[in-house]
Amino acid sequence: MKTITSIKELKELLAEARAAGKSIGLVPTMGALHEGHASLVRRSVSENDVTVVSIFLNPTQFNDKKDLERYPRTLEADCSLLEKYGAQIAFAPSVAEIYPEPDTRHFSYPPTDSVMEGARRPGHFNGVCQIVSKLFSYVEPDRAYFGEKDFQQIAVIRRLVADLGFKLQVVPCPVIREQDGLAMSSRNTLLTPDERAIAPQIYAALSASRDFARSHSVTETIQYVTARIDAVPGLCVEYFSIVDADTLADVRTWDAAPAIVGCITVYCGSKPIRLIDHIHY
Are the C-beta atoms of 24 and 52 separated by less than 8 Å? Predict the structure, then answer.
């Protein structure tokens, strides 16, 4: 595996692969890799001749500087894991390499980027679109792989791809969970043992809500999940929204859309750590 920090070198290497008729897969990450990332890399390796994994902690998608500062950074371990997973290229540029000058582009794809995370983290999805569009232009992948844990992000990226005309397939990959149900996340490493012990209650409530929803309304289901999680000392629901899986617009009835998903963000612990998850109904 080659570890590259230069955009120029990355483009040259991939131009050679493309000229040889090789397919290219891209797995964008912010590092602190775990088994969830591994599943994306393995999927890309199985479906492409060359897999590029970007490791870049993108500052423009953090509206909270403290959140950026405490985000785990494990580049050496990440590269070792990627070699084990079978990736051919790790792209680990500096912030100066990606943003030699401020990126002033503005992306807007309502309602997908204006609800839930978009409403509570101003500028977050604009930053996501900035970095993802840059990575797509550098790599020109045939396929790009994203974890469904970030369900809203995938919806936004699909809009970005259509808007900018990128010729690639966005490949969503299933959430990878710990044995106790907690969705794997780089942020989980920030949890204390006590916080880690209560965090699985988030998915437990979501799972139970499927049965609850069969005989209750959308509003009642939202209230049920919120109350159940808030009753756990150390957990506090920021929002739980039940939405159209395609547009992410709120739904009021269970027959309002062909596919419906519940998206949640929960604060865990005294710091607190912000955890996201979702459930399909």
Answer: yes
149: domain CATH number is: 3.40.50.620
**Which tokens in the block code for residue 255?**
């027959």
In which residue are the tokens 């149900």 written? 181
Task: Assess if residue 180 is contained within a domain.
Answer: no
37 is catalytic: yes
Query: What is the Cα–Cα distance from 260 to 80, expressed in whole angstroms?
Result: 39
Structure tokens given for 198: 């209560």
Query: What is d(CA 256, CA 249) in angstroms, rounded to the nearest whole number?
Result: 10
Q: What is the pLDDT of residues 238-279, one digit of tens each?
A: 999 999 999 999 999 999 999 999 999 999 999 899 999 999
Task: Flag whether pLDDT at 169 surpasses 90.
Answer: yes
Which one from 34, 37, 124, 278 is the annotated catalytic residue?
37
**Residue that has been written with the tokens 């993108």 in this structure:** 58
Summarised one tens digit per residue, pLDDT across range 25-41 is 999 999 999 999 999 99
Are residues 194 and 138 located together in one domain of the fold?
Answer: no
The pLDDT of residue 65 is: 85
pTM: 0.95
Residue-range definition of the domain harbouring residue 242: 186-280
Strands (E), the chain: 2-4, 24-29, 50-55, 89-91, 143-147, 169-173, 235-244, 260-268, 273-280
Q: Which amino acid is at 248?
A: L
